[in-house]
Amino acid sequence: MSEQAPPPDVAVAAPPGHLYGVLAEFDDTPALLRAAAKVRDAGYRQWDTFTPIPIHGLDGAMGIRRTLLPWVVFGAGIAGGLGGLAMQWWMNVFDYPYVVSGKPLLSIPAFVPIIFEVVILLAAITAFVGMLMFNKLPQLYHTWFASRAFASRVTSDRFFIGIEARDPQFDLDRAKQLLADAGSTNVEVIAEPDPPQLPAWVRKYAAPVAAVLLVAALVPPLLVAKARVTPNQNTRVQLIPDMDRQPRFLPQSANSLFLDNRSMRPLVPGTVAAGWAELDPVFYRGIADGEWTDALPVEVDRALLVRGQQRYDIFCMPCHGWDGEGRGPAAVTGQEKSPATWVMPTSLTGPVVRERPDGHIFNTITNGIRTMAPYGDQIRPADRWAIVAYMRALQLSQAVPLDLLPPGQREQMRR
User: Fold this and answer.
1) 65-70: average pLDDT
2) pLDDT value of residue 252
3) What Rg, from alpha-carbon coordinates, does the chain have?
4) Are strands 47-50 and 291-292 parallel, antiparallel or unpaired?
5) Alpha-carbon distance 110 to 104, whole Å?
6) What pLDDT is attached to residue 15?
């Protein structure tokens, strides 16, 4: 008759009402996989395995189904994409329509970067928060750590299976026997520890100390709020100030450092920026013999008009409109938002602008006029003349002189 192996060690059962579960220890991964399959086949639902390393096939042995987290993350990504599209659609099409570089208000390619960022943002946040929720984390302590063997060896060289007492099929003797028959080297009954009792002096002084700490915690934000609304002539504290605290002089102020006592230094006589001599007053300023020139200093052809239309659509159309009548989207929105203070742009096809010399219109584009901002630092001189040529074409389309019409149409207009 062969000698039987000694039964595994079984700890004494916990007191009734404090029982948490049964914890079994295994030496290697094959034993853990076989035991997990037996616990799964026994119908237990509230149980888990604990290993120091990932084990291939453990999910199948435990009968774990696929989590819903990928579908939740997918739904969050779809919601983020639709939300990013709706946000930009509302802002650009309804709340503040503004044409940028001639693009349509509803431009899906232009919306793609923001849509992508919102999709990634919502999906990442959902994946992180969902993982914590599905895993019931953070959990700084678990009752299984009441076992000394579990606490000292679960992350090094031992494998464990724990069956919780809250499982509907849990029976202490049956669970111990199942784990023992599954090849466990040690079966331990785990009891829930009693909640710790704070010392009497802690309970006595906890509330007053907490109140003092709460009041002290309010001091820094109050000081920050005070600093935001209170003017201060001193700069912030810096360990390495570098050039942040160097003397500063306002424009047109006195400065005794220089002989002329001026803080603003004049340009060296006879110097100009490289490539900006601008010796031709007609081309660069629109002035001929002291008067506004009435002739374009560039050759007018189809390429010039196409270029002028392109530059007009980018810089002028938002206020003056496609037809030059002064009803662009920016102007209409400004009138709707501030009807009492908004000044509508001048019609470019009306008699006022039509009778102005070309040089005057060029100067207006360069330096601005009344509420119109200057565009000289944004549009090159050649492009400004191209815009002037295109404006003349717009004016001609709105009021064609009779002598420019063919003879047949001219007779019809006279009738």
Assistant:
1) 90
2) 86
3) 41
4) unpaired
5) 10
6) 43
